[in-house]
Design goal:
Helix content is 25%, strand content 26%. It is α+β, with helices and mostly antiparallel strands. The chain has one domain. Strands 1, 2, 3, 4 and 5 form a 5-stranded antiparallel β-sheet that branches. A hairpin with a 5-residue loop joins strand 3 and strand 4. It is rod-shaped, with a radius of gyration of 24 Å. The mean pLDDT is 82.
C-alpha cells in the first residue's frame, strides 16, 4: 500500500513537469527582446537626418550589418503569458554622407525631410 502511494506521488511530480499539462497556479511572464521602438519614435524620423540624430531618437541599433554599415536594423519580439508572439522590424539605410536615405519595416513611415518643417 505504501509503495503504491509513493509511486502515485512520484507520478504526480513527474507529470507536473510536463509542459502540455496546464496548471492554473503557474505564472508566466511577458518576455520582451530587442529594441522597443514605438510609432511615435518612427514618426519623428525624417529623411536626411544624420546617424547621430537617428540614434538619439531610436537608441543604438540591435544589428549593424558588418558588410554594409550604412544599414541599421531594429528588431523587437514580445511573447506574452498566452504564448502569443509579436514581432516588429525596422530597417534604416544611410547614404555615404551618413544621412538617412530610406525607412522600411512594420511601422507607418513619415517621408518628410528636415527642410520641410513640421
Amino acid at each position: 500500500m505504501r509503495l503504491y502511494s509513493i509511486l502515485a506521488l512520484l507520478f504526480v511530480f513527474l507529470l507536473s513537469g510536463c509542459s502540455w499539462v496546464q496548471f492554473p497556479s503557474i505564472h508566466k511572464t511577458t518576455i520582451q527582446q530587442g529594441n522597443i521602438v514605438s510609432q511615435e519614435m518612427v514618426t519623428q524620423l525624417k529623411i536626411g537626418m544624420t546617424k547621430t540624430q537617428v540614434q538619439y531618437i531610436l537608441g543604438t541599433p540591435l544589428i549593424v550589418d558588418t558588410f554594409n554599415p550604412s544599414r541599421w536594423d531594429y528588431y523587437y519580439t514580445r511573447v506574452d503569458s498566452n504564448s502569443q508572439r509579436t514581432e516588429k522590424q525596422l530597417s534604416l539605410t544611410f547614404d555615404k554622407n551618413n544621412a538617412l536615405l530610406s525607412i522600411d519595416g512594420d511601422y507607418l513611415m513619415s517621408r518628410k525631410s528636415p527642410e520641410d518643417g513640421q
